[in-house]
Amino acid sequence: MKKGWMVVVFLVVFLQACQPQMVSSLQLPTNTSVVIPTDTAVPSATATQTPTMTQTPTMTPTVTQSPAATPMARFNELKLLLLENKLGGWTMQWVLPGVQIPLKLLLDNREYTCTVDVKYPDRLFCQGLAQPALERPITLVFVNPENGKEIYRTEFIIPVALLKPPTPVGYAQTNCPDRGKNVSCETECRIAPDGTPCIVATCVDACGPYFSVHSCPDDMPLPSHSCTAEQWVAMKKKYQIP
């Protein structure tokens, strides 16, 4: 009986040894984190800048210049320096900045020939036979003598003060280098019988006797009334008496 029990125990132990071992713990595979793809950002269409119309510069009208060198002359600065009655006609000396060639001058259609001198830049020396009108508007025209085309036109007034008084007969020291310097005059301003002022003057300069003025009538009665201060100033300016 005891021997049979031991056989049973032996069989039980044997059977347990033959069974495969159970895994103590079943390792389940861990969940790997799955990256869920996100929507890729689709680049938005950027607004294309439409090129604006650029402003094309318009051509400004070009002033057609004369073929001669006269366009450089600044006619707006034209000024008369001297008007003189000399042997051979009337002479004028003009200031015309930039003038480079001889010109023809017309004063109320009276013609004068003008020349330039390299020793005196910006000067124009004109000569003609006719006396230009004084103290009233006249038409002044410069013409290119090479082609006869008009270059400049304006209205001009020649004041009588620019008229150089003639040198009296016997006062012919014109070659004196100091002519016109240190001028002094003895003057009398009177009222003529017709009521207008007149003047008598004798002037000298560094060279001696220079010029004289006698605008009073020869039959001027004496004594006569003297000019007012304003009339005196006007007469001295008219005859360029210092």
UniProtKB/TrEMBL annotation:
Q: Where is the signal peptide?
A: 1-22
Region of interest: Disordered: 45-66
UniProtKB keywords? Signal
The organism's superkingdom is given as Bacteria
Q: What is this protein called?
A: Uncharacterized protein
Q: What is the lineage of its organism?
A: Bacteria, Bacillati, Chloroflexota, Anaerolineae, Anaerolineales
